[in-house]
């Protein structure tokens, strides 16, 4: 198992750039699996806690919480940010995290809190010069890889 803190230890600069993408706005997107196996997209807030872990929460009995309790696989997407058409190189990038949600003890109000086990982290950005994309990905078992797409 790998946690966000493991990525920070292994690739601190990459982890910081990914975290920055998740911090551009308050709400991001998560994908879970419904009972029938089809995807569900939900808005959510992410927390990179002081102890170095990635967590998310939800209201009591929410559909996304029920999805995660049934099947912990989850994909997280950073908040999106518009890029000026005249300056595509200023785009900060797009970050995604895939993993498994582990429920933690909840508050008295019945809300849900999940710690995210990380299975993949991907950061896509415009390269220099701005004629290609750079796709960086990290997996716990093989580390970081970088690819260019023209």
From TrEMBL:
Pfam (any one): PNPOx_N
Protein name, as recorded: Pyridoxamine 5'-phosphate oxidase
Region (Disordered): 78-113
UniProt KW keywords: Oxidoreductase
Feature: compositional bias, Basic and acidic residues: 100-113
Pyridoxamine 5'-phosphate oxidase N-terminal domain residues: 16-104
């Amino acid at each position: 198992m790998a946690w966000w803190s493991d990525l920070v230890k292994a690739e601190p600069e990459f982890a910081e750039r990914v975290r920055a993408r998740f911090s551009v706005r308050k709400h991001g997107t998560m994908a879970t699996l419904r009972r029938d196996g089809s995807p569900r997209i939900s808005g959510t807030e992410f927390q990179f806690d002081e102890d170095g872990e990635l967590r998310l929460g939800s209201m009591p009995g929410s559909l996304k919480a029920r999805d995660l309790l049934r099947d912990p696989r989850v994909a997280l997407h950073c908040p999106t940010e518009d890029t000026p058409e005249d300056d595509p190189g200023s785009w900060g990038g797009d970050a995604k995290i895939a993993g498994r949600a582990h429920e933690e003890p909840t508050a008295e109000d019945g809300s849900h809190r999940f710690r995210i086990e990380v299975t993949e982290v991907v950061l896509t950005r415009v390269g220099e010069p701005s004629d290609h994309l750079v796709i960086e990905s990290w997996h716990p078992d093989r580390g970081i890889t970088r690819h260019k797409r023209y």
